[in-house]
Amino acid sequence: MATKRSVAALRPALSGLRAPQIRPPCLAQRCTASSPLRPCGVALFRHSPVRYASSEAQPEKFGKTGLYDLHASHGAKFVPFGGYQMPVQYSDLGIGESHNWTREKASLFDVGHMVQHEFSGPGAQAFLETLTPSSLSSLNEYTSTLSALLHRETGGIVDDTIITRLPGKFYVVTNAGCREKDLAYLKSELEDWGKNHPDQPVEWKVLDNQGLIALQGPLAADILSRVLDEEHAKELETLYFGQSTHATIKGTDTEVLVSRGGYTGEDGFEISIPPYATEAVTAFLLDSAKDELRLAGLGARDSLRLEAGMCLYGHDLDDTTTPVEAGLSWIIGKDRRAKGGFHGDSVILQQLKKKSEGGGVSRRRVGFIVEGAPAREGAKILDPESGEEIGVITSGCPSPTLKKNISMGYIKDGMHKSGTEVQVVVRGKKRKATVSKMPFVPSKYFRPAPGANE
């Protein structure tokens, strides 16, 4: 941990920002089968039978992230999302304007409603490789992979997730809207793992109240470098998409986890922040780049992610969808394809085979360019010749960047090739649509030059 330096030049909110005193010994204890632990500070689990302490809190009320008051002070309009009151837009920019600002400069999104987990212990890797099709054995420290939690028999997607290997543990982020379902799933899977693998214990922490923000846009790296200490600011020059680092906020001893990536298709970072520092660090970022950085809400985030061809769970992915159907076969590691050993492997590995071998899928996720009115979730896709229903739209909106109506959905296998013309029923009228490759807008992730040594 870096030594605290002078904060005289920084905004008052950061003055004196320090990690709190070590919490009571409960955080150092380990859950056991005979003594389920009720955590204080963070939820702490082991694979033995335990209770999730936070599930009883405010069952009928919407939660608030640590940035709720900051959003309100910036004129946020709130909507319920994923069990939280989340900003959909702000008074200074409309949704389309916020979208374009992100593409041209940089925006800051609050994603603190998402669930952050840590898995550690001798059995952590093997446990996660049972639930997901990812090759975690080949994942280097401080690197991440998109993955999916899978149902045992069907290979359906319980939730999509990002898994990062950190020293001695795995950092996993799941969706807020799937929180209770995911927690029940993980608890059940850990209990089963403990019964069958007593020599490979796993410890599970849910980092409740941990802040998480996404800094996205072409100016993101320059803005972030201003608030990190000199050593870590320099690291951003060679921190590539899918890589992470622990960094210290300038003038303080506050350490954050910086992961290069995001949901918009732009260069950017997701920053995990200790609860005590979330608002101060976010305000410091905003103050450091007043002419370049704005807060952005769910409205812009949705149109940005759709242009980037990114899925939204509960819309483009669900429990009945396999990674192969969803166009996510690339998350299945080469060694996993050869050996299996993950939930739903018999279904998924069969789908990966050629049709001549009995493989393939009946539907595929694709993009569409729609003429006339935008086609939104639930719109039927028709064969233009026979009128047969051949698919359904799962997401759609006007594209602020392309000035066209874009959609994503599932279509009958064989009709999924780019350029295929179909019809989409929008408000009772048949509209012409064309299957399109995704992403709709080229991604601008920061990657090493071809052939360069990372």
List the helices and strands and how they pair.
Blueprint: E1 43-46, H1 68-73, E2 77-81, E3 84-89, H2 95-104, E4 106-110, E5 115-120, H3 124-131, E6 143-150, E7 157-166, E8 169-174, H4 179-196, E9 203-206, E10 211-216, H5 220-227, H6 230-235, E11 244-248, E12 255-260, E13 268-273, H7 278-288, E14 293-296, H8 298-307, H9 334-339, H10 345-351, E15 363-370, E16 380-382, E17 389-399, E18 404-412, E19 421-426, E20 429-436
Parallel strand pairs: 4-14
Antiparallel strand pairs: 1-9, 2-3, 4-10, 5-8, 5-9, 6-7, 7-8, 10-13, 11-12, 12-13, 15-18, 15-20, 16-17, 16-19, 17-18, 19-20
Helix pairs in contact: 2-8
The low-confidence runs, each spanning 5 or more residues with pLDDT under 50, are: 1-12, 21-59
CATH superfamily membership of the largest domain, which one?
A: Probable tRNA modification gtpase trme, domain 1
Structural class comes to alpha+beta
Give average pLDDT, whole number. Answer: 89
Order of helices and strands: EHEEHEEHEEEHEEHHEEEHEHHHEEEEEE
Largest sheet, order of strands side by side?
A: 1-9-5-8-7-6
Query: What count of structural domains?
Result: 3
> Sheet bearing the most strands, described?
6 strands, antiparallel
Fold and architecture overview:
This protein has helices at residues 68-73, 95-104, 124-131, 179-196, 220-227, 230-235, 278-288, 298-307, 334-339, 345-351, and strands at residues 43-46, 77-81, 84-89, 106-110, 115-120, 143-150, 157-166, 169-174, 203-206, 211-216, 244-248, 255-260, 268-273, 293-296, 363-370, 380-382, 389-399, 404-412, 421-426, 429-436. By secondary structure, the protein is an alpha+beta fold. The protein has three domains: 25-60 and 115-206, 2-Layer Sandwich (Alpha-Beta Plaits); 62-112 and 210-307, Probable tRNA modification gtpase trme, domain 1 (Gyrase A, domain 2), CATH 3.30.1360.120; 362-439, Aminomethyltransferase beta-barrel domains (Elongation Factor Tu (Ef-tu), domain 3, Beta Barrel), CATH 2.40.30.110. The protein has a six-stranded antiparallel beta sheet with strand order 1-9-5-8-7-6. Strands 11-12-13-10-4-14 form a six-stranded mixed beta sheet, sandwiched between helices. A six-stranded antiparallel barrel has the order 15-18-17-16-19-20. α2 crosses α8. The protein is globular.
